[in-house]
Design brief:
alpha/beta, 10 helices, 40% helix, binds ligand C2E, binds magnesium ion
């Protein structure tokens, strides 16, 4: 199984591997007990506003451990959770934990949460979010839901209705991984995203004229439609400089900060405290 691969990570999904179905069944079983057995946790990655220089949001990212402590990467367990439906309980758990964290983290204006199309399509999802907000007393405006453009994500009218219900709760809707699939453009036509996150693959060759031109075009397209732009995967000072030249609104990536447990949320300098509280983003 995953342990044979050594290191501290389960091996990546390979549909031709005879062990794969065993492994994905193991993970499916693990996901059923993960919340009860304390095997899931959240880490948070900072998002920086380039105009103020401040971290004004963090993205919540799920982590899963096997019973022996080995970690399973989200790229492996999220698709399994989506296939088995476990994503519904896990997704509610994520939103509840994030809300509880927000209660004690006044200096973090917004937490963004990845939400699967399976969740958006499941009846009563928006109502369950509303009840978590009600129970915890957290304002919907402190949450952003990230929706990934994906091939499998068809334009169901129930998804659009769900998104409009979430907006009514004050929750911002962001488009994640923009530029990786075919669906992104049609989503832009149908949903008024607050922010569009440009996929980090666009940074790979942004030091070549072709790569830079491609990035400039995609930024122009998103900006002309009135969305704020976040570029994911900023890893170097050179990339950050380019983002400033392009007047990108927000950046996220290892250069800004790695995903880390909640206790490491970056507090603002004391003089900023009133402003941050008065003007959440
Ligand atoms: P995502 O939403 O696009 O999240 C960003 C991913 O890029 C994270 O991987 C993050 O650790 C990684 N990353 C951030 N900055 C950099 C960088 O500078 N360089 C590189 N190479 N990588 C960077 P992670 O945590 O492994 O998550 C992978 C994906 O799993 C996420 O992609 C998201 O689609 C999904 N995911 C994670 N947590 C959840 C969750 O709670 N619910 C759902 N539905 N999906 C989740
Ligand atoms: Mg995301
Ligand atoms: Mg995503
Ligand atoms: Mg992304």
């Amino acid at each position: 199984g995953a342990k044979a691969n050594g290191r501290n990570c389960a091996r990546l999904f390979d549909p031709n591997d005879p062990q794969t179905s065993d492994e994905s069944e193991n993970i499916a079983a693990l996901l059923k007990i993960a919340i009860d057995q304390d095997l899931v946790s959240l880490v948070y990655q900072p998002i920086r506003d380039l105009s103020t220089g401040r971290v004004d949001a963090v993205e919540a990212l799920m982590r899963l451990k096997m019973l022996d402590g080995t970690s399973v990467p989200p790229s492996l367990f999220i698709p399994i959770a989506e296939r088995t439906g476990a994503i519904l309980d896990l997704g509610r758990w994520v939103i509840r934990v994030v809300c509880l964290e927000l209660l004690t983290s006044e200096h973090v204006p917004v937490v963004s949460v990845n939400v699967s199309p399976i969740q958006l399509r499941s009846p009563g999802f928006a109502a369950s979010v509303a009840s978590i907000l009600g129970e915890t007393g957290v304002a919907g405006s402190r949450l952003a839901f990230e929706i990934t453009e994906g091939l499998e994500m068809e334009m169901h009218s129930d998804i659009l209705r769900c998104i409009s219900d979430l907006k009514t709760l004050g929750i911002r809707i962001w488009l994640d991984d923009f530029g990786t699939g075919f669906a992104g453009l049609s989503w832009l036509r149908l949903i008024d995203f607050d922010t569009v996150k440009i996929d980090r693959s666009f940074l790979h060759d942004c030091d070549t004229p072709k790569g830079k031109a491609m990035l400039r075009d995609i930024i122009g397209l998103v900006r002309n439609r009135g969305h704020k732009i976040l570029v994911e995967g900023v890893e170097t000072e050179e990339q950050l400089t380019l983002m400033r030249q392009f007047r990108i609104d927000h950046v996220q990536g290892f250069h800004v900060g790695r995903p880390a447990p909640a206790r490491s949320f970056e507090p603002p300098p004391p003089s900023d405290r009133r402003r941050t509280r008065a003007s959440p983003v």
